[in-house]
Amino acid sequence: MESTQFPSLEAIKSAAERIKPFVHHTPILSSSAINEIAGCEIFFKCENFQKVGAFKARGAANAVLKLSEEERSLGVATHSSGNHAAALARAAKVAGIPAYIVMPSNAPEIKKKAVKGYGGIIIECEPNLQARETTLEKVVEETGATFIPPYDFMDVIEGQATCALEILEEKPDLDILMAPVGGGGLLGGTALLVHLMKPEIKVIAGEPEGADDAFQSFQAGKLIPQTGPKTIADGLLTSLGKLNFELISDLVEEILLASESEIIEAMRLVYERMKIVIEPSSAVPLAALLANKEKFAGKKVAIILSGGNVDLGKLPF
Fold it and tell me: Which InterPro entries is this protein grouped with (predicted)?
């Protein structure tokens, strides 16, 4: 990690204080039934109970609150098909500034509704990365708004790291901390915080087999872009970010893959045994754990349930 200056533990603690009035300190829950099935002790950090229903509220709030007065007056902009869109719209609303959100035309209706509900201004585009980026450039040019990237951005990574900070303050004697990986903001921030605070704890990621660019990149030691991802875990379709890859390749122990049927089974298990709503992306680390029980036998494991924004009309069970 020589080449890039990442946030210090003090900076992450400052971020936690900065965003405290604007986010929930989410609970950590456990299930003896799931522990028995898994053969280890699991603590679920419930970011599905977070503002906007996902951990993304943390990074978005931190990024908006760190803007200068002048930057704030012109608003913020991003491209996102999901939770970051809603998180940034909400953070902007709290700050009393406009949020311009470029969303692909095929973004889930529930996510569009959330963005509109927080007062975000939606600009639709074709459902591909190039269209998202060129539309965003145009919006930024016309409005002067500050682009807040969804994951590959230092202030966002710093904000996402506050989730792991809360976990370790409550459960300092963990063996393993798990998070899902898509763009890598949550996993990168988690790995950084654990490295700075309790480096003896292993950080392990869960990723869908059908969107495994982080796994491939991790194995190859170089960034391999996502191509044609296909998974029910719609929050993990995006390509791993450069900053996050740097953190992950240095500080993450392992990335484990989960099949579609394993993800659905893990999601169902949480619904049935814990009676809480999670989105498919949240189930991926548990799915990966259950597919590799021998690695976790008898260990104390925390899993970040990253979000709960699921279209109930499209449940896979």
Answer: Ser/Thr_deHydtase_PyrdxlP-BS, TrpB-like_PALP, TrpB-like_PALP_sf
- The one-letter amino acid at 80: S
Measured distance CA(177)–CA(194) in Å, rounded: 9
Which residue in the block uniquely carries the two structure tokens 């814990």? 274
Shared domain for 126 and 161, answered yes or no, is no
pLDDT digits (tens, 9 = 90+) for 142-154: 999 999 999 999 9
Separation in Å, CA 109 to CA 57, 79, 130, 142: 19, 16, 22, 27
- Total structural domains in the chain? 2
d(CA 290, CA 119): 40
Please tell me the distance from the alpha carbon of residue 47 to that of residue 302, in angstroms, as a whole number: 12
Domain hosting 124: range is 57-147
Rounded Cα distance, 107 and 238, in Å: 13
* Confidence check: pLDDT of 1 > 60: no
Q: What average pLDDT is seen over the chain?
A: 95
Number of helices followed by number of strands (H, E) in the chain:
14, 10
